[in-house]
Amino acid sequence: MVIFAGFVSQCSSNDAEPVHVSVKNDISEGVELHIHCKSKDTDFGDHTLSYGAEFAWKFRINILFSTLYWCNMSWADHVDGKYVYVQGSYDIYNAKRDWDKCENKCHFSVRKDCIYGYDKAKGALECVYRWPN
Fold first, then answer.
1. CATH of the domain at 25
2. Is 68 helix (H, G, I), strand (E, B) or coil?
3. pTM of full prediction above 0.90
4. What is the CA radius of gyration of the chain?
5. Domain that holds residue 6
């Protein structure tokens, strides 16, 4: 299942293709990811992603390359018989950081240990943000 938030238009630096960002719940079977993503101009609202589901959107980078989207995320699970609640807020897309890493297709995988982002040059996922302890 993919939730697609539509096309977000910003002042474009050129007629290049839009950037596609997706965030996928890869935490574990039965664990829901609660996510709320936004920029200074756009608020996508609250979404709940079941395991394997994605939230995705596309936009154009602004002329100053200062485009920034952040997401508040949380999830809960039972680990070793204990209830665990994890939450954090992360810059999920930062044009200055991410253009060189993923260009216009930026995929993020949310897992128990870390939020991973695809690095095109390495051809692999890398840990971008660790969950707070």
1. 2.60.40
2. strand
3. no
4. 15
5. 2-130
The C-alpha angle 101, 21, 45, rounded to 5 degrees, equals: 140
Q: Which pLDDT belongs to residue 103?
A: 86
Instruction: Let me know: does 13 contact 62? Beta carbons within 8 Å.
Output: yes
The Cα 31–Cα 61 span in angstroms is 33
Length of the chain: 133
80 phi-psi bin (left φ>0, alpha ψ -120 to 50, beta other): left
Q: Is the pLDDT of residue 92 over 60?
A: yes
Question: In the chain, what's the furthest Cα-to-Cα distance?
Answer: 53
Q: Which two tokens stand for residue 119?
A: 């690095």
pLDDT of 8 reads: 46
Confidence at 61, pLDDT banded by 50, 70, 90: very high
pLDDT at 10: 42
- DSSP state letter for 99: H
Average pLDDT of the residues in 21-50: 98
> Domain tally for the chain?
1
Contact by Cβ (8 Å): 122, 104: no
